[in-house]
Amino acid sequence: MKLLVTGGAGFIGSNFVRYMLEKHPSYKIVNLDKLTYAGNLENLKDVENNPQYTFVKGDIADAQLIAQLLDEHEIDVLVNFAAESHVDRSITEPGIFIQTNISGTQVLLDAARTKGIQKYVQISTDEVYGSLGETGYFTEETPLAPNSPYSASKAGADLLVLAYHETYGMNVNITRCSNNYGPYHFPEKLIPLMITNALEGKQLPVYGDGLNVRDWLHVQDHAKAIDLVIHKGESGEVYNIGGHNERKNIEIVELILERLGKSKELIKYVTDRLGHDRRYAIDPTKLTEQLGWQPDYTFETGIAETIEWYLANEAWWRSIKSGDYMNYYSKQYGEP
Ligand code: NAD
Ligand code: DAU
User: Fold this and answer.
1) What per-residue confidence (pLDDT) applies to 3?
2) Closest to 325 measured CA to CA, from 40, 34, 72, 110
3) Where would I find the NAD(P)-binding domain in this sequence (predicted)?
């Protein structure tokens, strides 16, 4: 099988590329990535010389390039991870989210349709469902009710994918996963930000009352689910992905401090995120029952391994936490 993976130099995409090269050594993988602030070829340094793997720098919104790649590499399946992915950045600069997440997806869909590839898989998010109260879960039937420019752009893309299925009969799948964590997670997101700030002795900025709930899944278990969807997903179907690991933000922050032997005095409650969704929780029954998925990680083993990874890979995160990152950080948190 020949796969075009877009956004493969980011957090989840790079873990997925590595997972697929190990699991399916005969597959060929082309990774197309624009290398925005979030894309990093260091994330795939260990596979760069694998003859089954090719990297191409480019934009998913470049129709000519996409058509050329589909032809040249005789692509069977396109898996779209490429996106602007950070909610906070979407609140300050929504424009690029519309351009990449919606227009970029439309360009990919059009190219996939014109070239008649076997399958298109859109990597979406549970955030398209909006926010839950204290009980209940997101199922695939939960109405879309996104609250941030980021989640609205992802919901827009999902609707386009489903429209291409209905209109042109394209073989598509959408996956909607909960919050991922694991190696190569960019340190603007909660878990890597808190681990690296704690290691640097910096304050840990917790939004609002710290009681918002996220449902965490190890990135490897996400990759495993996408692999199943590629091979066994029914045309036109959406699959939620999550492992029933709900945690309050403050519990995670305290766990990280405890494991690193750092003081809780580093915690700083800061102004809440605008439109901050209160709770996410996934019902993964469709994926477990229809496709036979089960996660390998518990949250406890996954977070312990992840903290170890950041301890062992200080050069990776220190090189990111400089330059442009520091400009972003001081704008977002009002301090260096
Ligand atoms: P990320 O920000 O780490 O990586 C995004 C990648 O896309 C980067 O490598 C970036 O360079 C690339 N990219 C951005 N714009 C591009 C463009 N126009 N053309 C080509 N490449 C471009 O994001 P992530 O956390 O790895 O998320 C990947 C996907 O998974 C996203 O679609 C996101 O919505 C979805 N998702 C993320 C999570 C999560 O917890 N992080 C959960 C569910 C779904
Ligand atoms: O649910 C899936 C989504 O998870 C993905 O679609 C997004 O791409 C991904 O970024 C993530 O979105 P969240 O907004 O849930 O993740 P983030 O790590 O930004 O925040 C997690 C929680 O932690 C959220 O309630 C906000 C809070 N938070 C975050 C940051 C960065 C803080 O309290 N302080 C912070 O500094």
Assistant:
1) 98
2) 40
3) 4-306
Q: What is the pLDDT of residue 147?
A: 98
Cα(150) to ligand 1 centroid in Å equals 11
Decide if 81 contacts 3 (C-beta within 8 A).
no
Indicate the domain borders of the chain.
2-181+216-241
d(CA 294, CA 274) in angstroms, rounded, equals 35
Q: Is 127 a catalytic residue?
A: yes
Find tokens 């640097």 and name the residue: 200
How many Å lie between the centroid of ligand 2 and the Cα of residue 180?
A: 10
335 pLDDT more than 90: no
Q: Class assignment of domain 2-181+216-241?
A: alpha beta
H-run or E-run covering 56? strand 53-57
User: Is 48 buried (19+), middle (13-18) or exposed (0-12) by CB count in 10 A?
Assistant: exposed
Taking residues 272-290, what's their average pLDDT?
98
Helix (H) or strand (E) holding 55: strand 53-57
Please work out whether the CB of residue 123 comes within 6 Å of at least one atom of ligand 1.
Answer: yes
Q: What percent of the chain has pLDDT over 90?
A: 99
ipTM: 0.99
Residue type, 74: E
For the full predicted model, state whether its pTM sits above 0.95: yes
